[in-house]
Amino acid sequence: MKNLILPFILLLTFMFSCRENNIDEILEQKLNSVDVYIAGKENNTACYWKNNIKTNLTNGTGITARKIIVENNDVYVFGTSDVTPSNFYLWKNNVKININQYIGTNLNTTNPADDFHNIDDFLINQGNIYLLGYVRSPIISVPPSGTQSYTRELCYWKNGIKTVLFTEDPSFSSPFITTRNFTIHNGDVYIPINKGLNKIVDPPYEVGYFVNSTYHMVSSYSDQKSFRHISKGSNGVYLSMYDNNTGNTYYRNLITNTNNYFSQTIKGKFNLDGNDIYDFSNGEHFFKNDINTPLIYVSGFNHIEDLTALNQNVYQIRSKSINDKKDSYKVYINNTEVLHISSVNGLFTSVFAKQN
To answer: Origin, by domain of life (predicted)?
Structure first.
């Protein structure tokens, strides 16, 4: 009997060892089949890294790359100038586009007669370039005080063609709106807004969203709610919501009109991998489907600048601050550090992972 036990133990050990090796090999294959892109700046020049290999962006001096998207084999990078007033730029495969010319406005200046504009976000869908932002309207408002001032338009642009969603009057008692980002689902543009009743401090908000140019209300002023972020997954388009009355947070699926993950955790900026929601607005840790999921990282790098997930693997940029000033940045794939930069030389801003 004793002679049978030892071979049996050796067989089990061999089987488990093979199983662990197979799991490691599968994980390695998944990681190796993914290209990781990081946008940022180094040596005062906008740039991006693909699998740790850097590409300087054409005429990128004095500009910071803020967001990177890769579709098919095309690399799109959005950047802003490092001096105010800000100007905005886009590179497609390292060919630079001046956004002010692309959308038909003047360069941003301090002259109020110019078409001042601000670009909050950009997306790519089937080769089409979408921009979201504000532009000073050519319409002049004359309130009761008699002082002339310009109105402001919330717009999105598709390949340079503008769609105006809301025109804001500058008077103190008029409604105003705020937005953060947008998404595209099945070819439709989803743009969420918090609509303030007036410009009084801490006004009640109406939460709603535009699908292309059609407005839909999510909650009324009396509901005392606000949205934080929008993102899409395989199962719908989600808003992260905050209820000012109860302190609860949750995700609202705009396709199914259902609410998910009611709790009092911080819900803000998030991305989806399939049906899994990865929220990284906490700063130090991310929450996967509202469950705190700490990762291993170097001491001090306790703030997540950006995060995405693909096939259950997590790609993130973390930063370290000293005396409330950014000191350095690291890129992690799961628990493994893959890239580092000191703030003396530059910074990382955006991460994008793409399956080969």
So the answer is: Bacteria
User: What is the chain's alpha carbon radius of gyration, rounded to the nearest angstrom?
Assistant: 24
What are the residues whose beta carbons fall under 8 Å from the beta carbon of 6, sequence distance 6 or more? none
Asked whether the whole model's pTM tops 0.70, one would answer: yes
Query: Helix, strand, or coil here: 17?
Result: helix
Under DSSP, the state recorded for 202 is: S
Residue 335 tokens read as: 């628990």
Give CB contacts under 8 A, 24+ apart, made by 260-266: 261/289, 261/290, 263/290, 265/290, 265/292
Question: Residue 12 phi/psi, 5° resolution?
Answer: -60, -45
Q: By C-alpha distance, which of 347, 346, 251, 355 is closest to 312?
A: 355
Q: For residues 77 and 134, what is the distance between their CA atoms, to the nearest angstrom?
A: 20
pLDDT band at 138 (very low <50, low <70, confident <90, very high): low
Nearest CA among 81, 92, 153 for reference residue 122: 92
Domains of the chain: 45-300 (2.130.10)
CA 219 to chain CA centroid, Å, is 23
Nearest-angstrom CA–CA distance, 341 and 220: 45
User: Which pLDDT does position 85 carry in this prediction?
Assistant: 75
The first and second tokens of residue 105, run together, are: 């406005």
Q: Which two tokens stand for residue 123?
A: 């997306």
Q: Determine contact, residues 119/88, Cβ cutoff 8 Å.
A: yes
* pLDDT tens-digit readout, 283-319: 889 999 999 988 888 889 999 999 999 999 999 999 9
Q: How open is the CA angle 340-345-351, to the nearest 5 degrees? A: 45
